[in-house]
Write a structure and sequence with these properties.
alpha/beta; disordered N terminus; two-stranded antiparallel sheet; 10 strands; four-stranded parallel beta sheet
Length: 277
């Protein structure tokens, strides 16, 4: 992204915001109570899917899915993951493009009671191979688009689950697994600018805790359209993903690596994004 260094993203966002009147207090805001952090992320998400089944959950340039469809798709993939790895809590690597596929994969891994490690397909192979080895993951979840990349990076040492080739026998109903709030949910790696990348783990309770704080601070509601500019390989993405999808809001991924940055302001306006992070 060196060629983008001279462009001011903040300026583009401000250009968008100047064209909107301040909406004032949100009438539909529902406070995220502290008692609600004592559960798993899938439990909280499934509540939203039940409450807003036909509402858009994720909308990218190529595809949009409702809460109901995202829940069903992630349930099927979760069952596929368990059929390969069993019920043990362990890391699962995601090699999926920015947008609906990786979001679905994240919720699938969490629903399976596993720890998700997203690898951005556009990142340098050296970094990706290091993370694959360091994480000691045994399974990669990918799709047709990224299958060759996954096979190349794994060097035939890991099992691969292609979500585009799942068995039709996998049912879309909720798994209802017993997942503790203290179970690990993610392992995200640092940039490695001061040495090798280091994996940072986080549990369900802590993720829900910072989601609660973010939600209540800026009053995230089910009427919001929340941007997702961060790669899911970095922790900043989690704020956007969970603040939106654990509150019934819509998530709008925008890939800064492949999209034209000069179109960002226009995209914000066209998609009526209300929360830009």
């Amino acid at each position: 992204m060196d060629n983008l260094a001279g462009l001011d993203v903040k300026m583009l966002a401000e250009q968008h915001l100047k064209q909107k009147k301040h909406p004032g207090p949100k009438k539909d805001f529902v406070r995220f109570e502290k008692s609600e952090i004592h559960q798993s992320i899938p439990q909280r998400f499934e509540m939203q899917a039940k409450k807003y089944p036909e509402k858009i959950a994720v909308k990218s340039r190529t595809r949009q899915v409702t809460y109901s469809q995202l829940n069903k798709d992630s349930n099927c993939i979760a069952r596929g993951i368990i059929s390969v790895t069993g019920r043990k809590s362990e890391p699962v690597v995601l090699i999926l493009e920015h947008g609906t596929p990786v979001i679905t994969g994240i919720f699938a891994v969490l629903k399976a009671g596993k720890i998700y490690i997203p690898l951005d397909p556009t990142l340098p192979p050296v970094r990706s191979r290091y993370i694959l080895e360091n994480s000691r993951a045994k399974l990669i979840v990918t799709n047709n688009r990224n299958l060759k990349q996954a096979e190349k990076w794994s060097e035939n040492k890991l099992q691969i689950l292609n979500i585009d080739q799942l068995s039709s026998s996998l049912t879309p109903g909720n798994l209802d697994l017993s997942i503790s709030p203290d179970d690990m949910a993610w392992c995200l790696y640092t940039s490695g600018s001061t040495g090798n990348p280091k994996g940072v783990i986080q549990n369900h309770r802590n993720i829900l805790h910072f989601t609660m704080n973010y939600t209540n601070k800026i009053h995230v509601s089910s009427d919001d359209n929340h941007s997702l500019l961060y790669s899911c390989s970095f922790s900043g993405s989690a704020t956007d993903i969970f603040a939106a999808l654990l509150n019934g809001a819509s998530l709008f991924p925008y890939n800064l690596r492949t999209e034209n940055l000069t179109d960002l302001s226009r995209w914000l306006i066209n998609e009526k994004v209300t929360i830009y992070h």
